Amino acid sequence: MASLMDHLFTIPETMERFIFPTTPTHSGNHSGGGAAAEASAHIHADVLDCPKEYVFYLDVPGLSKSDIQVTVEDENTLVIKSTAKRKREEVDGGVGDGEGCKYIRLERRSPQKLMRRFRLPENANVSAISAKCENGVLRVVVEKHPPPPKPKSFQVAIS
């Protein structure tokens, strides 16, 4: 059952990998596969299957809740994306005089576009989704529909 759930959640990202393949380079950046693959980055996620809900934890460092969009597409695909850029720190506030200062190294750049898709199982209630972004971690909760009632069986007496 766990393997089936894992498979359902990863179908959209598997399809994207075939369409826009990426290969790691020496510097740890991903390239190849055209402009779409270069412009988009993978968001790391943990997915929990709880009795009454599915909980997604996604790393979104440097982004605020206003930078992130959580939507449902095609009735059962959860899409988490951001097109915001990380803002550079101001060069004043006790560092030099603020004028004439320039960055000599920028390693903390975040990709311009982050996106992750998850195919939701049939029992996911797409109208009951909540999200909270705190300390660089996005938590998305998708409630489950209650299980259908089991049909009652009767013993019919034969006359």
TrEMBL record:
Coiled coil: none
InterPro entries the record matches: A-crystallin/Hsp20_dom, HSP20-like_chaperone, Small_HSP
Domain SHSP: 34-159
Record key words, sorted: Stress response
Keyword Transmembrane helix in annotation: no
Family classification: Belongs to the small heat shock protein (HSP20) family.
PANTHER family per the UniProt record, alphabetical: HEAT-SHOCK PROTEIN 20 FAMILY MEMBER
Name used for this protein in its record: SHSP domain-containing protein
Taxonomic path: Eukaryota, Viridiplantae, Streptophyta, Embryophyta, Tracheophyta
